[in-house]
Amino acid sequence: MSKISSDTLWELAAAEAGGRDEDGGETVTERTLFLMGSKAGGKTSILLRCLDRDELSKPTLALEYTFGRRARGHNTPKDIAHLWELGGGISLSDLVQIPITTVSIRSLSVILILDLSKPNALWGTMERLLQAAQAQLEKVTSQAQQGQKSKPGAKHQTSVHSAARVLPKDFPDRELISPFPAPLLIIGSKYDLFQEFDSDKRKVVSKTLRFIAHYYAASLIFTSIKSESLMLKTKGFFSHLAFGLDRGKTVSSDPSKPLIIPAGSDSFSQIGSPPTTDVDITSLHAKNPKDLWKKVYERVFPQENTSEQRELKDPAKDPRYSEPQIDAMRAQKDQELDQYKKNAAKSWKGLELET
């Protein structure tokens, strides 16, 4: 596979974001954003606000698609953002394979929305969803590389080089972190409820999410749909990923205020050690720094049993989607199925007695 040494996946994506084709002319830029996060954590509401859509949000049943468009100027082509939203929290994490494909990874970004008002489910949700997305990203990147090798005459062989992001050489703690395979934005939602927490608990959540964001080379922002100023800043981060706009230069790491930390503006030295006063860190037997933060966090916020969260409400029984004729036919078929099961059970019992 031939390649231009100065080109990386992200440099090519940046060039594409600039809207330049091979002849130097303008072309429509298409990007893909994949939103996932806490169940009922406000994903849809945040997305609608970032798109300036005055619509009532409704629960996302599984995986929903929409798109956004933005013109660069008067009489110019509109850039397109393909937007996928995963519902159900961690219960449908297997669906990451739909938005994360060999085609979409060329311009894909991930947004993880975590409900700050439910810290006892935060780490489990974050860990499960990021693991699922990362595994799929690495899988399709490998598939794309294999596809390029099998087509030595392909025109765009430099579109995918590696599953690993290439960070600037001056990125803080570059040798100590594990960058997420795609640009990642972590949004802490429902800050209006979170700010009512005890200050010590807020500090634990804030420092832990700062560590996680920096460890994955991600951006981090706390927001609330009840705050116009916070949503404006959140929209800046969203538009940066969706349309390549400037995300702003605001940085706030004060745990008594909403965190606003663009990727690359934090460091392990600024974050400090895990916030704990009643636990001897050396007694936790952690495998690595991330595991240490997890153990300290779970001492303060014992995590809920995520295995019980895989149940998803049956949309066929949701009154919001009722269709009288279809529902009546469905009820009849359900009764027929139940009767068939009962008759089948009797038949098998009879066979067992005769043998």
Topology:
Layout: H1 9-17, E1 30-37, H2 43-50, E2 63-71, E3 78-86, E4 108-115, H3 119-149, E5 184-189, H4 191-194, H5 199-215, E6 219-222, H6 228-243, E7 260-261, H7 268-271, H8 289-300, H9 324-354
Parallel strand pairs: 1-3, 1-4, 4-5, 5-6
Antiparallel strand pairs: 2-3, 6-7
Helix pairs in contact: 5-8
Could you explain how this protein is built, in words?
It is a single chain. The chain is of the alpha/beta class and about 350 residues long. The protein is built from 9 helices and 7 strands; from the N terminus they run αβαβββαβααβαβααα. It has helices spanning about 10-15, 45-50, 120-150, 190-195, 200-215, 230-245, 270, 290-300, 325-355, and strands spanning about 30-35, 65-70, 80-85, 110-115, 185-190, 220, 260. A hairpin with a 6-residue loop joins β2 (about 65-70) and β3. α5 packs antiparallel against α8. It is globular, with a radius of gyration of 24 Å. It starts with 8 loop residues before the first helix and ends with a helix. Residues about 1-5, about 15-25, about 155-165 and about 310 have low confidence and may be disordered.
Q: What is the terminal-to-terminal distance?
A: 66 Å
Tally of separate helices: 9
Strand order across the biggest sheet?
2-3-1-4-5-6-7
What is the helix fraction of residues, given as a range?
25-40%
